Amino acid sequence: MDTPMIDLAAVRADTPGCRRGVFLDSAGSSLPPVQVLDEVVGHLRREAEVGGYVAHDERLPDLEAGYGLMASLLGCEPDEVAFTDSATRSWLAAFDAVPLTAGDRVLVTEVEYAGNAIPLLRRAAEVGATVEPVPSTPAGEIDVAALREMLDERVALVSLVHVPTNGGLVNPVAEVAEAAHEVGALVLLDACQSVGQLPVLASELGADIVSGTGRKWLRGPRGTGFLVVRRPVLERLRPRQVDLRSGTWISPDSYELRADARVFELWESSTADRLGLLAAARYALDLGVDAIADAVLARAEHLRAGLAEVPGVEVHDLGTNRCGIVSFTVADREPEQVRAELAARDVTVTVTGVGSTQYDMTRRGLPEVVRASPHYFTSPDQLDEAVAAVAALKR
Ligand SMILES: *Cc1c(COP(=O)(O)O)cnc(C)c1O
């Protein structure tokens, strides 16, 4: 590959938090670079000086340009982008707008996320639709041949998790979208764990709707999310939660909704956080999404290889095409105990349990795994320190 490399010293200099210890939780809530921090804090200070409305208006050109910025990150048009306050808010706004009636079928991956599964199961039960997991291949990705056998004209929606919350596999989006579109089903892509670590271009992947978050791999502030709704799909959706941002009250008894993706936005939002999210998106685009993907994969492979050598450690990642999430267990130690002992050694990891990914963890008989998610700013030496810390747990 001739993608430019990440300048490790430069990105570490931009990331004060990465020198405090070994940070391995970009799948949970990453460390923002100073460019993001300065934007958020600077705007909060400005709000305190002139009030939130004036401060907002001063940044209107940047906020408006933000739709184009996100569009270049996500491979869509600026009017196909909406900003929200989380990936879940984005996903719910879109899902609630998908028409679903008795007898309809929704197909999901075996790595469906709890935050999607709960509203899916609830709404399916209410309207008389079904939620059906598509089997995975032995390697772990969604089985596209099995999907093709399940697809028929009653399938209204395919809910596809790009990268699961609990492991390093990458699902094949383009193949799923192509198959789903042959029967007219909508493809809703949960890109929460992929945007910021992998290229996620809606146009290339063929996803109709894409949801994502700011705080994970993109390194934005908490409380930020975004949604892509491709233009041809918008007219098939019926947004449920609309307000005076989504539309205009044109006479005492009539209103008009916006005809672009911003119909899914609500009036109130944090301008500081939005600006921080945009700074994070700009930072990723400046580094180059392909360079980021190469660096993250290299870090994760380094960590997986190191962990696999430690006696008693089992690495659980599935998939032929892998990414930055590393999942493992340590013999005779609960994942929570591993997390706490690593935290005491300044190594930050998290634990993910069956309640987040029921189909997958139940099927594999795994109640919990430790999740380590290194970003490009984690140095290879730090990864070796983390492996040594895990090895030290054994005695
Ligand atoms: C974290 C996560 C979400 C939810 O993101 P929020 O920003 O917390 O709403 C959705 N899907 C997957 C796969 C996730 O890992």
UniProtKB/TrEMBL annotation:
Probably catalyzes the conversion of hercynylcysteine sulfoxide to ergothioneine. The modification N6-(pyridoxal phosphate)lysine is found at residue 216. It catalyses: S-(hercyn-2-yl)-L-cysteine S-oxide + AH2 + H(+) = ergothioneine + pyruvate + A + NH4(+). GO terms for molecular function: transaminase activity. Its cofactor is pyridoxal 5'-phosphate. Keywords: Aminotransferase, Lyase, Pyridoxal phosphate, Transferase. InterPro entries: Aminotrans_V_dom (IPR000192), EgtE (IPR027563), PyrdxlP-dep_Trfase (IPR015424), PyrdxlP-dep_Trfase_major (IPR015421), PyrdxlP-dep_Trfase_small (IPR015422). Its EC number is 4.4.-.-. It is an enzyme of class 4 (lyase). Pathway: Amino-acid biosynthesis; ergothioneine biosynthesis. Belongs to the class-V pyridoxal-phosphate-dependent aminotransferase family. EgtE subfamily. Residues 22-384 form the Aminotransferase class V domain. It holds the Pfam family Aminotran_5. The lineage of its organism: Bacteria, Bacillati, Actinomycetota, Actinomycetes, Pseudonocardiales. It comes from the Bacteria. This is Probable hercynylcysteine sulfoxide lyase.
